Amino acid sequence: MYKKHTLDNGLRVVTEHIPFVKSISIGVWIETGSRYETAANNGISHFIEHMLFKGTATKSAKEIAEVIDGIGGQINAFTSKECTCYYTKVLDTHYALAIDLLADMLFSSKIDEEDIEKEKSVVYEEISMYEDSPEDLAHDLLYQSIFKNSSLGFPILGTNDSLESIGRSHIIDYMKKYYTANNAVISIAGNFDEDRLLKVIEEKFGHWEKAETLVKKDEVLQYNFNHVSRSKDIEQVHLCLGFKGIPMGQNKLYPLLVVNNILGGSMSSRLFQNIREEKGLAYSIYSYPSNYKGGGLLTIYGGMSPNQVEEVGGLIYKELEELRTKGLTSSELNKSKEQLKGNYILGLESTSSRMSSIGKSELLLNKIYSPKEIIQKIDTVKMEDVEEIIKEVIDLEHVASTIVGKVEKDFVFNKAK
């Protein structure tokens, strides 16, 4: 049972009480990420996430780690395209200490000039690590290409050049703009006394200032269906294909999830079984949908040896063509729906995943769906919904592609000869 409380400063607090566990997961969600950046400050959202762990007015970076380690808890954070989250998981007896630590990091971080320069070196290494991971690079290039007219295409980590120019004043200004009470959500799942919990949150976060005007990203995304390649002296070729997907919050996402499961979303999927298991042409091949405000993607990824790119590309094309002409069988539809429900329900067994689910949903959609509602949305997917989404998303005339590896000629996505 979810509950929502809104403090006087506009801060939303969403809770789910789970009395039979001994843990509590707490997340502070801010609606900002790389999509809210410019080319000049690209990477600043992720960099701020790093800086809030570098020490506060009362604790050093080491002491922050020692506080959470001392109670056997966990603390971490992540930055995505559209949000940033700082979260902890602790025993239910230590919730007040965890909330105090998160508040201290958000409101009292030093953001010291010397620490900024040190942490830039860390993020430069993180960027280099991504460059050395061709699978990650292929996905990043796909976003940069297909969303080249939108900040959604910016890399979350930023670039060496954009990070170099970011200073303390830029960080403070950015936080004043986006790190505000009415642009944030605190989500909590686990075992707690609600009155005591809300009292602690009010005490630690009630003074958080709110913004008079909030910057929101509600643009309708434009798509660019081009081919991009990056030559790298590596053994495999990494291929990504991108199709126009479904925006966040639309019910059409559920039939797309059903289709994706059968196409490439599991080990029993058509792409995995045909290309890896039967023909042995790729070690890794999968598909997945991503959804954002105003648009989304369906992405297919495959890793293979350079001399098999055309054959694998042709087989993917053939599977998609067959999906368009023949659709799914009724047994595939039912199997996929059961798979989706099973995966979803198993995921609910963790307080961390529940905290994440309700926090992100409230932050970006201003709405939380109960497990019963989600299961109902999956159950009500009909064959005609699936056929409609296949026609809408699997458009073989509009495909973006990226390749990373030893590329001798341009990749053309069509039937195998």
From TrEMBL:
Entry's Gene Ontology BP terms = proteolysis
Which InterPro entries does the annotation name? Metalloenz_LuxS/M16, MPP/UQCRC_Complex, Pept_M16_N, Pept_M16_Zn_BS, Peptidase_M16_C
Q: Name one GO molecular function term.
A: metalloendopeptidase activity
Q: Name one Pfam family in it.
A: Peptidase_M16
Q: Which PANTHER family match?
A: METALLOPROTEASE, MITOCHONDRIAL-PROCESSING PEPTIDASE SUBUNIT ALPHA
Family note: Belongs to the peptidase M16 family.
Its name, as the record gives it, is Peptidase M16
| Originating organism | Clostridium aceticum
